[in-house]
């Protein structure tokens, strides 16, 4: 059982049967799209991490603002807490700093120390950044109002994504929200074709994962949560899971 997890009477899954512990094998998610990064960081990362199959140039600040706007639209207010999985070089944290300053608690998590080192000085002083490669969050239960994962589950296998969702449920406060971006077919068919071409040429070394809304809906039901799509001005679709 995931530490701190509780059973939900309406869930078929029943969290006590979850086979992953806190020491589960971490997923291989070292890829980074170059345009997700500010220019100074791009030369410091290896070539495979600089592949950019879908994000438009110059979008680092723009997408961060869109992500922050989504959270504010969903009810993020001063005094609340955000846990940001795959925070990278601080797209979201820098945007939240501009919009809310230090009025919220923020925990950014990533597997690349260089990205965390870049993000930290560009965020509010009370924001925290932690290197973590486990399939669980380094946070106590019921400690977060929002858990976010932008451009993360698009690079994980389904069982890894669900493992994170299970643990995100553990750290959510009552009424809390999970927000994550995802790719789906046939909406992102052109991206799939481009990824296939990159794979054939050997220029796409990382995983691109696609999810169907019905799969997310089933996961939400197993976790005792409500799922809805959030309309956002970004290429990925955005899923919202509410703790009920």
Architecture overview:
By secondary structure, the protein is of the alpha/beta class. The protein has six helices and seven strands; from the N terminus they run αβαβαββαβααββ. It has helices at residues 60-73, 91-100, 113-119, 158-171, 189-201, 213-222; strands spanning 81-85, 105-110, 128-131, 144-149, 172-182, 225-230, 237-243. It has a seven-stranded mixed β-sheet with strand order 3-2-1-4-5-7-6, sandwiched between helices. β1, α2 (91-100) and β2 form a beta-alpha-beta unit. The longest helix has 14 residues, at 60-73. The chain is globular. The two termini are 21 Å apart. Mean pLDDT is 77; it is low at 1-58.
What keywords describe this structure?
alpha/beta, Rossmann fold, 7-stranded mixed sheet, 6 helices, disordered N terminus
């Amino acid at each position: 059982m995931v530490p701190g997890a509780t059973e939900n009477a309406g869930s078929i899954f029943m969290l006590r049967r979850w086979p992953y512990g806190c020491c589960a094998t971490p997923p291989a998610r070292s890829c980074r799209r170059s345009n997700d990064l500010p220019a100074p960081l791009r030369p410091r990362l290896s070539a495979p991490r600089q592949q950019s199959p879908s994000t438009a140039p110059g979008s680092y600040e723009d997408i961060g603002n869109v992500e922050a706007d989504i959270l504010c639209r969903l009810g993020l207010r001063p005094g609340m807490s955000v846990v940001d999985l795959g925070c990278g070089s601080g797209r979201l944290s820098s945007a939240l700093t501009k919009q809310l300053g230090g009025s919220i608690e923020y925990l950014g998590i990533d597997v690349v120390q260089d990205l965390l080192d870049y993000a930290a000085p560009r965020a509010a002083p009370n924001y925290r950044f932690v290197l973590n490669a486990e399939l669980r969050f380094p946070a106590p239960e019921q400690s977060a109002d929002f858990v976010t994962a932008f451009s993360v589950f698009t690079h994980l296998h389904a069982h890894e994504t669900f493992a994170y969702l299970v643990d995100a449920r553990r750290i959510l406060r009552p009424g809390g929200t999970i927000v994550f971006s995802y790719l789906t077919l046939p909406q992102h068919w052109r991206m799939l074709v481009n990824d296939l071409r990159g794979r054939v040429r050997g220029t796409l070394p990382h995983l691109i994962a696609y999810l169907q809304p019905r799969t997310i809906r089933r996961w939400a039901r197993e976790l005792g949560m409500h799922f809805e799509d959030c309309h956002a001005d970004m290429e990925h679709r955005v899923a919202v899971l509410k703790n009920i």
